[in-house]
Write a structure and sequence with these properties.
By secondary structure, this protein is α/β, with parallel strands linked by helices. It has 14 helices and 20 strands. The strands form 5 sheets. Strands 9-7-5-2-10-1-11-15-19-20 form a 10-stranded mixed beta sheet, sandwiched between helices. Strands 14, 16, 17 and 18 form a 4-stranded mixed beta sheet that branches. It binds inosinic acid.
Length: 423
Amino acid sequence: MVTVVIGTQWGDEGKGKVIDYLAENVDIIARYQGGANAGHTVVVNDKKFIFHLIPSGILYPNKICVIGNGVVIDPVSLFEEIEYLEKSGIDVEKKLFISENAHITLPYHKLLDQIEDKFRGKGKLGTTGRGIGTTYTDKFARIGIRVIDFVDEDVFMEKLKIALELKNYLFKEYYKEEILSPEKIFKEYEIYRKEIKKFVINTSLYLNEEIEKGKKVLAEGAQGTFLDIDFGTYPYVTASNPIAGGACIGLGISPKKIKKIIGVAKAYTTRVGMGPFPTEIKDQIGEKLRKIGDEFGATTGRPRRCGWFDAIIVKFAGIINGIDEIVLTKLDVLTGFKNIKIGIGYKYNNKVINEYPFNSKIFSNCEVIYDEVDGWDEDISKVKKYNDLPENAKRYIEKIEEKIGIRITKISTGSSRNQTIER
Ligand code: IMP
């Protein structure tokens, strides 16, 4: 049985906490796309962990974590994470498996990502600069380096030289940057090549065998539906498929194995980087959300843009992901707001639009039609039962449910595991 957890907005919905919470009842937690652009925050016993690559289930002593073939792996970031976990007394060896087929992010990917975004000028995407798009570009251009190539010194050197021939031409002739030496990269990454070996297996075979044995797998999506390369606000998207369908490709499992899809939605909306965001609040209310919600990127530290809950996009996320239930996060952040708005439609050229438009001209320039509920002042961070929530908070939750057409089964009211209300 495989359950997929996905983001229903622009990432940063609180998937790290939700996955950590759900991980208790599964055997294996598997990441299927993205790379070190993600920043999944988990707080256990007041200690904060930020995971970029390793699945958020690693904190449990008896769970297996898998980094699937759909992920792009920056070895520097991976080993920083492993070192931090081990220093914190968390055992990683024998609990982490890495796919042979995942692609490796190397220095030229990071450098190119940063330079390219600068060169885009007005078309700047505001990427995380972690070499994500450039690693996926090489994967599709068939000059990428997979984990299985990386651990073989002859193959790695050969492929590195081929990739750098083209990149160095770009660096030198076009971007007027210094060229990179394959020998230097080879030497610098020697330690990672040796260290990564013990984690590398055929993860697709492993996962299928374990599923066959009846083991429970949680497939962990990074980013969110509207950062999806196909369904997001293109071109202001990431370079992979965070949607539920991405789990099959990114792990090598059949769609027939997926039994449940859980969507994570923040009780308001945030977005990092460029791109349309109709319900964005540009005044002091947005500032207040950012401050109370601590809305700063877990990977880059950039302030997140904040806005009201957009029911139209979450409804669309429900459709294309096939979401069975929603976990609503950070509801506590909305305490103290006098009125709380929910985007329920858009208006463009005097026409009402009730669906998420792929046309970015419309999505960037539309006006939002809002519904509104009264806020609450009570502290909800210690509430354990749904019925003990303030009436207005329940009204807000039920209004969202009505607009997105999906049941909200869990409500998160703080970063700790026990700040989760089961409904
Ligand atoms: P990239 O994934 O670094 O290529 O960045 C593309 C866009 O996705 C940028 O707007 C990033 O801010 C955004 N992005 C990438 N990863 C995350 C994430 O984990 N949370 C939120 N936004 C992200």
